[in-house]
Amino acid sequence: MSYNKHYINNKQYGKRYLSDSQFINTSHCIAYSGIIDRQARFVEENALMNASDWKLFVEQFRRGADDVDSGWRGEYFGKMMRGACMTYQYTKNEELYCLLTLTVEDMLTTQDEYGRFSSYLKIREFTGWDIWSRKYVILGFLHYHEICRDEALRSKIVSALTSHLDYIASHIGDGKTDIGKTSQIWLGINSASILEPVIRMYNLVGREEYLSLAQHIIKFLSDGEPNIITLALENKLMPHQYPVKKAYEMMSCFEGVLEYYRLTGEEKWKTAAINFASAVYNNEITVIGCAGCDEECFDNAVTTETSRTGIMQETCVTVTWMKLCNQLLLLTGDPKYADMIERSFYNALYGAINNELTQNNGGFIFDSYSPLTLGKRGILTGGYKNISAERYYGCCAAIGAAGSALPALTAVTATSDGIAVNYYESGCVKINGLDLMVETAYPAGNTVKITVKNSESTKKLIALRIPAFSGKNTSISVNGETITVENEKSDSFYAEIERKWNAEDTIEICFDMNARIIRPVGIDGKEETKDFFSLLYGPLVLALDSRLTSVGETIPLDGKISVNAHEKVLPKCLFSADVIIGNKKLLMIDYGSAGKTWDEHSQIEAWIKCK
What we know:
It contains 17 helices and 23 strands. The protein is of the alpha+beta class.
């Protein structure tokens, strides 16, 4: 199986890969009805359709709003626009499209006489978070450009972005201001993360100045003070040992490194990104699929996650990790990245979605930080900034929609010879000559039924992702006939079925949800950091919630473990179960549904103390 590759011709590099967003837009029709659908539509209705917020995001550019504190208000427009456009690609909500169009047209009027879209006045430019915010301006416009149906508006956007980036390229680069000198924060990697949209703009308009700027940034990230590309290539240090440890910004830079690989075809850039992602996963990703347990920084979380409390596991980190893994999934076809995304989506991201709409956080849809040991949600709004006298916003509130839309867009993707089913969601999908209906209660249930409603007359490959937790214990049948699941590894894999498909052919999958206890690595010499356990069921982390059972107790880990789905679903949750550990009976729910009062009434535990 190999993924379809989309190419672009340019003068210097010839045929190279386009960005993953082009892959996501492979022509297909999707209409889901499960949790992926519900969350995307919930975010759309309760966050993306707020016209007054969109006006305020644009207003930040008319008054140099970030001058007052060298802030990042300028990121909100682009972050929200990216997530909103991704959501629109799935929902096709015409009201959302009209609102985004009005916002883009309004935003275009804020471009100054120098071509800048900046929330910093010119006298203060190239400091703080200015370039970071200008990055998001480009990304927001580019994502809207992808969905825009008005050719005149598309041309106007390209012209405006060209002026915007021309100004940046004329001031930053070799023989000009070094990219690392445009911010005094995190060794300048926040500014360097503009690499991704710079390359996308080069792909779009082919201006050599943009290629030169990209090369300058690559050199800075390789040989400059951050040194993150070289360190990733050497693959000796862990991310928390790099000169800069800020999780979100560093992952954003590697998204740009992957764009540079697609442009140049030089394997070392892909290798650097793969090495980095592996180091993050092995050393930093927590049980719920997030990272940054030390004030949003990498800190070797596999050893420290049970000893950290407070500000940790930022939603911006969750979404950026999902996006980085998605790029690697589409680039390599390795299903382990889909496993990683699934863990993050069902636990960290779903847990951050405020689907009970409490007002503790000002009514935001997304929480900013996630607890692991005994604690509560809603402790702080991340990236807090006032955007008017009456309204404030946050970075995590702005980025979340990109995460909630991502699985809907990539649950089923085209390959060169058929399709890959990456995530399991009820609904219908038409893609690459196949028309499928999927019925499942996954991740709460362990069965999936896929019915072919129509197919082209040629042979087609359907590749089914088998997650690592199920592996060889997965059973698959086609039209009632069991097929052999072949895989030499114990990790996740794609079960490939190639045949000429007929209408009403069925594929049935039964996963082993493999209820399993895991123990933390902990810190040597601090045994109290090891005296915990977490319980996983399929891709779900189960948790205690003080609304349902006592929390803060020490549970003896002896005897057999059983997980029996609970018939009464209180409070609202994806999954609830009676869990028996030895002689102890616990009522547990999925981590993503726990703690949703966002106050002391629903304290939660994912890492539970044990004897």
